[in-house]
Every structure is written in structure tokens, then in C-alpha cells.
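hey all, quick one before standup. I had two proteins in the batch that finished overnight and I want to keep them in one place so we stop losing track of which output belongs to which input. First protein below, input sequence then C-alpha cells straight from the run.
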Amino acid sequence: MNKNTKVVMMGLGYIGLPTAALIASNEISVLGVDINENIVKTVNNGEIHIVEPALDGLVRHDVERGYLKAAIKPAEADVFLIAVPTPFKGDNHEPDLKFVESATRMVIPYLAEGNLFIIESTSPVGTTEKMAKLIFSERPELEGKIYIAYCPERVLPGNVIYELKNNDRAIGGIDNASTKKAVEFYQLFVTGELHQTNARTAEMTKLVENASRDVQIAFANELSMICNEADIDVWELIKLANKHPRVNILQPGTGVGGHCIAVDPWFIVSEFQEKAKIIRTAREINNYKTEWVIEKVKNRALEFELKEGRKPVIACFGLAFKPDIDDLRESPALSVVLSLISSGLKVISVEPNISTQNCEVELSTVDVALKNSDIQVKLVNHTKFKQLPKSVINFVG
């Protein structure tokens, strides 16, 4: 592997675009593929469609130098990366691999001997092997002649570019040769340590990382509900408990959102239903916390209505799934707002990180919301909300 390597990135979302930009910044030719023509046009103009620090300048620089281009269809290359969503479906939260399979089918005609095919999308155990079988069923002449591996991202929105480059990676191939070939590729742009394993272990590693965080958050969220009933300030309690040298309780919030922590644990639960008891319970607690917040706000609204003789106007601060990003995927804050609106309450929503055209609810400013509301609720701990008055009902610290 060298800088003459040609790369196709399938998916230009929150992971695909930053990864493509990072690779291209190392003077490696990258073709980013997305079925959304607006995204393709935006990237080819040297612009971005998501909020991520440092990404706009990086994409613009890559496009201007000719190392990054976008298209709606793939082309011949040396390396094919899959970075598309993997949602769940149904009441049992079964993994839905339709996007991974669709992206794989799109690149199959372009695969050639010696190519490297890598899945980065968070996936249930066995997905890489399943896609390998799909490839070889369509192109049997390639069996044993291409490399196939799995390498999940492990990044924090808001710091993606730095973490894509510097974080350690777990890389697992369907065989040893595939693992080593994938390591050679990531060495071109990752400075973190590259840990070699097999595809199944790499897949489970990603799921376990997010399930572990989900369990820790569930403890904090459950604690916040207990403290509410016990008339204890949960923030003060956690601060004091964390003075213990071996205790590190996380901060409770409105729930858990995003495409990783709110989704990945279900991949384990759906496959290991009898064993994944703690993981399932954590998911249920974090989902329930959102419903608990909704009921708290509705109860406050009812109290106001009984006292004032009219329904209140409620200002909700924050819609993204975590602070200082524009990502609404699986957002508990957005769920709260939509639930309040559907129950007939008047809601003023404030989300400084996105524009009105990118949101399903009408947005306002902090000043307008404070001036024109009777009840104020902070649902996301955005930096721009640090100066909100103490009268605001605070669910996020």
C-alpha cells in the first residue's frame, strides 16, 4: 500500500465524509459515493452538509487539490470502504443490514483481484463473513484473490478528525492475509496503534464498547430518577461520590441518542437474548429516562394550567443527541419535543447547531424563547446554553 492507492468510500455521512477527507489529506485519491445527489454536489463544491469542527476546511482543501471527489456511483479502485448506516428494525430491534448489503452490491462489479474490501459500519457479529459470501456468490472467480476485513470507527462527534487519526483501531480480516492488508492501508493515515484480530472479534469489540458506555449511562440516569424521588440533588451527589478514587459516575441526561450507543447494544441483545440481561436492562432504562422527562415536563405544564387557567408555552433548549453537534439521530431531546407537541402543548424549540430546513420542528433563538415562554427546559448541554438562568428546568447538568 502506498499513496498511489485509489480509494472508494461508500457513504458520505458523519463517518464516511470525515474518513474520506482524512485519507485524501494524505494525498491519496478518494472517490466518495453517496446516493444523495445533493450531498455529492455539496462535496464537489468543497463544502460539507454536517457540523464537524475542522471538517469544512479539510474537505475544501482536498477538493481543491483534486484528491477528493464525489459521485453517486463507485468506480474501479484498490480499496473499497463501507461506511453506511446500520439501523435496527421491528419490536425486537433486529439489525437491518439493507444499507451495508446495498453498498456491497454496488461495488461488486468493480472489484478486481488484489482489492481490499473493508466494512466500517457498526455491524452485528458475522456481517463481514456474510458480505464475503455475497461477493463470492456474485463473483466466484474472486474467492481467495481479494482481501476482506472489518474495522469499526471509535470517534467522538465534535472531535472526529483528530480521533480518526489518533485513536487505536481494531482490525479483523476474514483471514490473516486480509487483516495484514487492512493494517497496511490504515497505516497510511492512522497514527494510533492498529490491533490485529479476526473479523468476528472486531465486530463484537465495537458493540461491546458502546454497550459498556450504555450501561454506565443507565446507572447515572437511574440514579437521577431515584434522587428526584428522594429529594436529593443528583449533581451534588455524583460530584461527592466521584471524590472516591475508584468511582467515576457519569452525568445523567435526557436519555441516550445517536447512531451508536442507542443502537449497537440491541445488536448484542437480539443475537444473545438469554445472556445479554444487563445490556438489555440498560437500554430499557435509558429509553425510559426519556419518557420520564416527558412526563415531568407535562406535569409541570398541568400545574401551570391549573394555576393560570391556560396552557403554558414551553421553551426546549437543545434537540441534538449530545452537546455541540447537529446530529439528530435517535435524539432523546427531539423525542421529548415531538411528544410535547403531539400532546397539544405549545413548544418553542432552540437548537443553535442546525438550520430550520434541516429540522422537522420550527426553531427559535435563545432570547426569543426565554422572552416568550412560561416554562423553560434544558434538554442538551450545548456550550451556548451555559448562561441560561437558574430557573430553567435542567435535565442535563
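OK second protein, same deal, sequence then C-alpha cells:
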Amino acid sequence: MRNIIIFFYFISLFFLIVSLAGCNTGGKINKVGMLVEHSINDQTWGEKGYQGLLQIKDKYNVDVYFKEEVKNQSEVNKAVNEFTMQGVNLIFGHSSIYGKYFNSIKESYPEIHFVYFDGAYEGDNLTSLHFNSNAMGFFAGMVAGKMTETNQVGIIGAYEWQPEIEGFYEGVNYQNPDANISLNFVNDWDNTERALSIFSTMNKNEVDVFYPAGDSFSKEIIDRVRESQKYAIGFVTDQSDLGNETVLTSTVQYVDKLYIQAAEQFDKGKLAGGIFTYDFEDDVISLGTFSPKVPKVFKQKIENEIEQYVKTGLLPNER
């Protein structure tokens, strides 16, 4: 009788293991969540994050969830708790703001790995992914410095801390020391009304190349630039589709690729907590399509300079 009980015990254990194995993809991902500070429909940063989430869904055949307009600790706490009830064990915070929010709750959710962008918080289950966007901005600034006809270049930034803006400024100066750079900040990713007001002022002051470095307002600014028959540099995505004779090139961040990379590492149990930085050599940063207005010789010069940067880690003004 005892042998029969043991036999049935092992049979039950076998079927339990088989059934559990059929519930996942063979790795660690169960379900994935994403928190967005604003909207996934901004045609730049938010949309690219959402595309990354969908790519994870397709690759790993898992359920994914997202919540928009999550902007403070209480909203993060509520969303994370809801994700946990749904079985989510990998959460992306699609902004730098989520670092401090995740850091305050990470120990309460040891079964969840938190990932966010461009911050200084880290932990065993907290990972920060950084785009080294200074160089990207520098090379785009060189293009702007080359193509300005009035020697007036305008930067409409979201925030002062954006590394791509500092790089852009330096790139314009390196390529064209005679250029005057107008710089103003919206202090918001999405305040299109203020961004358009800044554009109007710059436009009246003969700025003829614009860099609208903000999620939601870059498209609106580029539309106005095209109407004014001037030039722009696209932001986050390749925005050449807004006018290939208007958009000289774009500063592109492939955040969707980083989503996939992070998911792959997590699924293999290899996603470490910490701060990790990515640049041109990681194939997650690039310049976008060049306008036919940019001379071919100069386009080749920029491409050569990028190659040298990848090899040496030094920008043209540092070599």
C-alpha cells in the first residue's frame, strides 16, 4: 500500500512540473508592464517605448500592460500593485522620474525587476539604462552649423539637463564658430503651446535651423519650420517623413531595442541591477536619414567622424 501511495505521489509531482513548464516561455518572464509619464501617442519617446513593449509581447508570447499619465509616487504604487496582482514580474518605467519612485518600493517587491531610463538610482532589482546622447547631439549640431545660411541656430529644449542639447551646442560651435545659438526651454516634454511661442520668437530673429528637443512638440515645430521653408533636426525618432528637405537629419534613440535587450537578459536570469550606458557602438543611437539638401561630401564627413568616435571614444573637438 505504501508503495502505491509513493507511486501516485511521484506521478502527481511529474504532472505538476509539466503543467508549470507549460505556463511560461522557458525563461523568467511572466508578464511585462510599462509606466508612461505622459502618452504613448506622442510620436516620439512614448510611442517608441510602446513599440518596444509590443515587441516583447510578440517575441515571448506574454501578456503586457501599460499605464499612461503616471507621474507621482502614489500613482506608481497603485500601478505596481495592480501589475503585481496580474502576475507582472518585469516593469519598465519609461522616464527618468521613475528612478526615485521605484527605489522607494523595490524592497517590497523582490519578485519584480524594475527598469527605467537615465537616472542614478540602482539596486539588486533596479536597473537604469542610459543613452549617452551627448555625442548624438554633437554630430547633429555639426550638421546645423554647416547648413545655416543666416548663422542663426535655435534650440527649443524640454529641460536644461538634456545631454543632447549640450552636445548640439558644442557641435554647432565646432563646425561654425560664427554661428549664434538661441537657446530656450519649455520645462516640459509636452507643452506645445509654449514651444510654438518660443519658435515664433526665434523665427522672427532669423533663425533658420531649429532643434526641437521635446517629445510631443518636436513634430509641431517641424511642421512650422517646413511652412517657413527653413531647416530642422528631428528628435528621438527619424522624422524625415515630416519633410525630407526640411529635416536635415534626426537624433535617434532606439529605446525599443533596449527594451528587447533588457527583456532577453531578464528572461535568461542575467539582468543585473545597476546603471548601464549605451552609445553609437551599441547600435541603439544613430543619426537619422540625411536630407538631400545636405551635401554628400559633408554627409560622408559626418559618417567618418562617427566611425572615429566609435573607435576612440573622442569627439572631433577632443581629438
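Flagging for whoever picks this up: Confidence is low (pLDDT under 50) at residues 1-26. The two ends are 82 Å apart (CA to CA).
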